[in-house]
Amino acid sequence: MTIPARTAFRSAILAEAAIWPAALIVVLLHLLPTRLSPATDMVSEYALGRFGLLADTCFLAIAVSALALAVCLRRALQPKRAVKTATIALTVMAMATFALPLFPTDPDRPSTVHGWIHLAAALLGMTSLIVAAAAVAVHYRTPVANHPASTNIAGLSLICSAVMAVNLALMLARWLPGLTERLLILAGMVWIAVISRFLRTKALGGG
């Protein structure tokens, strides 16, 4: 295995290994007595209560996963425009997500400086993830000879980016913002997990 392939393989493992604990924490937060409504309260609000450490750990795990996936894309794929776009978008998403624990949200609507920074970082991260998924869909829009599953990856990436975009629009329109944010996060986590697994297999095969 070449050095780039080895780096891509390890980065894909890290990306997948980090996203699953984040997903489990999200599930756990919904089972704990937080008194938050999944339909109307935002995920960031879990960080304001007694389970704040869990929520912050979730944010950091997502950021690590996105950054590792960015490294994986850079090492595993040819530096075409779509790949560069996805890599930059994932890096931006990771940096924005890293900022979330540092600038806590405000309950309901932003009313402080750190609340506005949190909102801006969250929206930037969500938008960047949508761009990354769409860019990967563009990259894999035609089958790759040694990886015919690339067509499925393109389809999944397109679906996930569309689901995230629609739910982001609904969230901004304040239509069940908690629910639509959670659907956006779910689609993003699924995409990261699947594309990480796919790229790990690709790097392992040297293709």
Give the secondary structure arrangement, pairings included:
Layout: H1 3-31, H2 52-76, H3 81-99, H4 113-139, H5 150-172, H6 177-205
Helix pairs in contact: 1-2, 1-6, 2-3, 2-6, 3-4, 4-5, 4-6, 5-6
Uncertain stretches? none
Structural class: mainly alpha
The first-to-last residue Cα distance is 10 Å
Q: What portion of the residues fall into strands of 2 or more residues?
A: under 5%
Rg, rounded, reads: 17 Å
User: Fraction of residues in helices?
Assistant: over 70%
Taken together, the total number of domains comes to: 1
| H/E element sequence | HHHHHH
- Biggest β-sheet strands, sense, barrel: none
Give the CA-based shape: globular
How many strand segments? 0
What's the number of helices? Answer: 6
Mean pLDDT: 92
